Amino acid sequence: MHRRLIIFTIVLLSGALPGIFLAGNVSAELYKRVNPDGSVEFTDIPANSDDEPLKLAPLSTFKSTLPPREGIKIPSTSASVKYTSAKIISPANETTIRDNAGIITVNASVSPGLQSGHKIVLLDNGVIKGESTSGSFTISNADRGAHALSIQVQNKSGKTLISSGSVTVYLHRRSVFNP
């Protein structure tokens, strides 16, 4: 019994499935049989003369079309691109961070996406702490206390194109003097 099922599976996978996908409209009768042990068997050969074929729903088909070429707009990489927003996504404003190593992770976003040759600069209390093209920053060994974080998008020559608002975070670090 299992041998027939294995042979059927091998035949189905090796020949029948590629034939179904490669042939246009293929039509064959399919029969379902429940064996005495409860296993289900599908076959194209009826076990009895009174077996009726399964009624299957028609296959869904569609025709693919190519989009019109004139509808495609390639974004400009020129310096004339106007950024509409620059913001720090995380951490949120007025967040307290407890990290004894003084690590602050900052994620920022710019809209529209960052253009080629441009960079995002992270400022902490007005001091540049890093540059990125992905918008992810890590400040290491930051001092405890308040940190006013902001970002700027700069072009190749270092000209600021847009700045974000300030996000204030508070870093708490343990100390022997103030546990």
List the helices and strands and how they pair.
Blueprint: H1 2-22, E1 31-34, E2 40-43, E3 85-90, E4 95-98, E5 104-111, E6 119-124, E7 127-132, E8 136-139, E9 145-154, E10 160-163, E11 167-172
Parallel strand pairs: 4-11
Antiparallel strand pairs: 1-2, 3-5, 5-8, 6-7, 6-9, 9-10, 9-11
State the main characteristics.
179 residues; mainly beta; 6-stranded mixed sheet; 1 helix; 35% strand
Explain what you see.
The protein has 179 residues and is mainly beta. It folds into two domains: 2-43, no CATH class; 85-172, Immunoglobulin-like, CATH 2.60.40.10. It is built from one helix and eleven strands, in the order αβββββββββββ. It has one helix at residues 2-22, and strands at 31-34, 40-43, 85-90, 95-98, 104-111, 119-124, 127-132, 136-139, 145-154, 160-163, 167-172. Strands 4, 6, 7, 9, 10 and 11 form a six-stranded mixed β-sheet that branches. Strands 3-5-8 form a three-stranded antiparallel β-sheet, with no helix packed on it. Strands 1-2 form a two-stranded antiparallel sheet. The longest helix has 21 residues, at 2-22. The mean pLDDT is 80.
Concise account of the structure shown:
The protein is mostly beta strands and 179 residues long. The protein has 1 helix and 11 strands; from the N terminus they run αβββββββββββ. Strands 4, 6, 7, 9, 10 and 11 form a 6-stranded mixed β-sheet that branches.
